[in-house]
Every structure is written in C-alpha cells, then in structure tokens.
Amino acid sequence: MPPLLKILIRRLALGVLTLFLVSLLVFAATQALPGDTARAILGRDATPARLATVRKQLGLDRPAVVQYGVWLKGVATGNMGKSLVAQEPVTKLLGNRVRNSAILVLLAALISVPLSILIGSLSGLLRDRWFDSTTSLGTLGLAALPEFVIGLLLVMLLATPIFHILPAVSYVNPDVSLWHQLNILVLPVATLVLAVSPYMVRILRASMIEVLESEYVQMARLKGMPERIVLRRHALPNAVIPAIQVIALNLAWLAGGVVVVEYVFNYPGIGTGLIDAVSNRDVPVIQAIVLLIAGLYVGFNLLADILQILISPRQRTGLQ
Amino acid sequence: MSDNLIPVNGAPVSDLDLGPDAGLGEPLEPRLGHDLGSAPARTKRRRREWVQLLIDAVHYRRTQIGLVLFCFILVVVLFGPYVAPHSPYQFVVRPFAHPSSTALLGGDSLGRDVLSRVLYGGRSVLGLAILATVIGLGLGVSLGLLAGYARPAIDDVVMRLLDVLLAFPQIVFVLLMVSVLGPRLWLIVLTVGLSHAPRVARVTRGATLEIKERDFIKAAESLGVSRIKIAFAEILPNISSPLLVEFGLRLTYSVGLIAGLSFLGFGMQPPTADWGLMINENALGISIQPYSVFIPVALIAILTIGVNLATDGLSRAMIGIERDTGAS
Asked: Using an 8 Å Cβ cutoff, are A299 and A31 in contact?
C-alpha cells in the first residue's frame, strides 16, 4: 500500500528530525551555562593556566559546532563523556540506573494497562451505575493529583507507624537482583500505576460506551447471541482499538513520570540520577538522561501515531 | 441527553448559533454592515459565550464541589497570614515536636510552627502557578492562532518547532532549564509557562481551524480587516470556551509542577514557607510528626482536585452548549 507507506515514512522522518532538534536544544541549553565546565570542575579559585589546560582536555576551546558534532558522534556510539562529579564514564555510571528505571516503568505499564482496560470497560458497561460514578470521580481526582502527592499519600497510608506494611524508602541493595527485593518496588510502582491509569480508564470507558451503542453490537444482541460473547467478541476488541494510541501516549508519560516518583522513594533510577546531576550541574550526565527521556518520549509518541495510522482505515487508505 | 443532538431547525449550523440564545440578538449582516469593530456588539457576543459557559457549568455538582474546594484554598492562602499564631520563621518548639497548645499542628524539622508555615506557604504555590499558567496560555494562544490562521508554511514551521518542546516531559524540560541557570524563581515560572505553550497551542490551533472557515470570518476577510485583528477580535472570542477549559487544566498541572519543583529542592528556597518545600524539609520526620508533611500534601491535593473538578464541569457544560446548538 504505497500511500500508507508514504505516510509512515513521512512520520518516521519527522520523528528523526524532532530527535535531532531535541539533541540540538539539549546541547545548546547545557552549553549556555554561565561559568564554564572547566571552572565547575576546578572550583572558584582555579588559576587561568589550569583552566586553559582543562578546557583543552575537554575540547572546550573548539567552536561550538565542532563540539556538538563530537558530542553527537559520542551519543551515537554510546560514549556520552565523563561525569564531572564521579569522574567516570556516563554510560557506566547510568547503566544500573537505567535498568532500575526500566524495571519500574515496565512493571507499571504491565499492571496499569490491563487494569485500566478492565476498569474502563466495566465502567462503560455499567454506565451511570454506582461502579461507574465511583470510578469516574476516582479517576478525576487521581488525574488531578501530582505524582509526588499520590506517592506521599501512599507512604502515609502504608509505610508510617500506623500501617507499617511497606518500606517508605527504596534502599536498593546493588548486590542483590531487584527481583529479590520486590517489596521496595511496590510503592513506586503503585504510585506510577495510580498516576497513569486515570486517563486510560476514561478513554476506555468512552470508547466502550460508543461501541455498545453501535449497530453491530445491537445486531449481535438481536441475533440472540449471549451477552458474554457479544462483549468478548464484538465490544471489547473494538473498544480497545481506539484507545491504543492513548495507551502508548501514557506509556510515554511514564518516561517522565519516573523522575519525581523516584525522588519520593529515593529509588536509584535515572530520575534521581537527573535530580542529583541538576543539583551538581553535572552537565554530561544531565545531557545523557534528558536525551534518553526525550528519546523515549518521542519514540512512544511516534509509536502512538504509527499505531493510529495502521488502525484507522481512513488514514490507512490515505483518504482524509 | 440524546434529544439535544438534533438541531431544532434542522438547518446547517449557522455561525450565529454559538451561544444558546444567539440568533435572538443581533443578526450577522447588520453587524458587519455597520461597523465590524463596534465595541458593544463585540463585547456582548464575547461575554455571552464564556459567561454562559460558567453559568451552565455551575449547575453540575462536580463544579460546585470543585469551586468550594478551590475557595477553601483561596481563603487559606489570602487570609492565612493574618491569622497565623506565629511567624513562619520563628523557632517555637523543638524539632518535630508533637502538636501542643503552642504549636497546634506540631513543629517542623527546625522547630517552627507547622500551622503558621502552612498558613503562609500557599501564596507562592498558588501565585506562581497562576502566573505560569497565564504565561503559558498567552504564549500558547498566540502561537496557536498564528499556526491556525497564518499560511500553511508558517503553520508547519511553528508546529514542528513546538513538537521539539513537546518531546520533553514538562518536569524534565524545567529541570533542564534549571540546570542551566540555577533555581531562579522567574526562570521556573517562565519555563513552566513555556512548557505549557505547545500543548495550549495545539488546542488553540485546532479550534481556530474550525472557526476560520465560518462565514463571518470570510466576511471580515473580504472587508479587508487585517488578519491580526481578525485573529484576536473575531476568532479569539469564539474559541474562549475551549480556552477556559484549557486554563483550568493547565492550572492543575502548574500547581503540580511548581509545588513539585519546590519539593525537589529547585523551587522556593529555604527558609521560605512553601507547601512543596515543607514536604521536602519534613519528609525525614514523616513517621514522628506526620502533620508536617500531611497537611501541605493534603492542601496541594485539595487545590488540584478542586481546580480539576471545576474544569471537568466546564468541559461538560461546553459539550452541552455545543449539543444544544448542534455545533460539533
């Protein structure tokens, strides 16, 4: 299908262009630092000679365009420079953190997506009954709450002396696999799930209501098909499809949502890594993490768009 | 609900049908014939749309609850400092002291009165959030009008550039800027506003694209009214409803971002009394003196839920208005 292919390629190219501009913005912003990197490393009372040496070592004396080229090449080859604070390669420094965050996001996604589909479609099915109105108010409230507020409310509910069920802070033991210390994951994952689900629940509810009012569902019912099969075969699949784009967008949100949630629980992931780096003005680490998060965000958005193009017949055939 | 879906007259939607009682007022032709810029007619029309939306929204229970919650916070923020028993900076009890007659909600990490700090600490959260939202809406609406009503080439460039900003989760974008210039207040307000702009611009552009094909815009164009004037005097008043909803939505997020940044330690700096910062300062004592964390958390929660409930009422009322008039 050439028109479809054309749309997909165009969208992909736009995604790559966006990523390129994002990298440019990240680089330009971090280069605008008042007081340059050499001074940041050496401290306030560095001699001019030492400053010059370090600047040369870091390549800071070269034109900005060249520096950007070198940096971008490094990004492409997985060499993001050295942390100014830890004096270690950024990739090595962030390896564990990326893995920890990935586990967090993955678990949150694996729980929130099926849960939202279940609650959302039930809510649509039981429209205007107590389950629906409770869910509706609940999602409205949760959608309003900032992630850190949800996290802290959970901490107060489950991890203070009143109900000391779960640890409030994630002391991850680096020598033991995270799978063996799942209890520290419960609260951060629960926070992310509660923060991300409301939107998915609401879109599924709306989608389910629309499907249930459709002619093919009425037709199936009139045929005398058992309600259970009507729901499973006709209603649910058709209700989920339009929601797929929103689901992908919410997974994109998770990439940014981990930042504050990790800080609440002191979880050693890229979020706390970013916050530490911002406090220390550790430029290479900031660049790496921001680029990673933005890349994921753009990637999921792209995925959402592509899925939407593939799903919707109107766009698939190129007719607008 | 469903009986409203069919337009009463069955005719194609006319531009006059924007407000529920539109069409009874001034008809389109005379208005254009006399003076397009005549202020009374325009303000009358503009006011009608969003005031009507507010009036309709108040009929919803959720709007009422939302407004009550918001007003509660507003009262705390505005009058709190006048009734605070202590100065927010004064050390009155020992650190993390339990509630007593001296400090009704106990002491914070340094022994300051939690109640007094709570009563003082909302100004920065609410004030900065409103400021950031206004900046974000101003920028976003201007860019959205530009994209929606300018030549397609400009539209493309503006929207692609905004896509770059959209590639950053809002908090990450603000943190990136903070890492450049340090935790300055003006910077945080500006960047939170800036991070709203592409999102607001998308909504504005979408609404503009719908409006700009209408007859009254075409009429104004054919009369030679400048495009900037049409954008701000003709299009803007007619998209005020979705923008009002957008304002509420962005305010909810602004509160979260501003308070969140203080919570992360990049917003308000000590010794300021600020709800976000209080959570940060007192988090270590959460199990000894829960009030020092719980009260600010609860107040932020009430504020965001209140704004969101009211906003939800607005958007429901908006759909209602559109249904009444058959506009889609």
From this structure: no
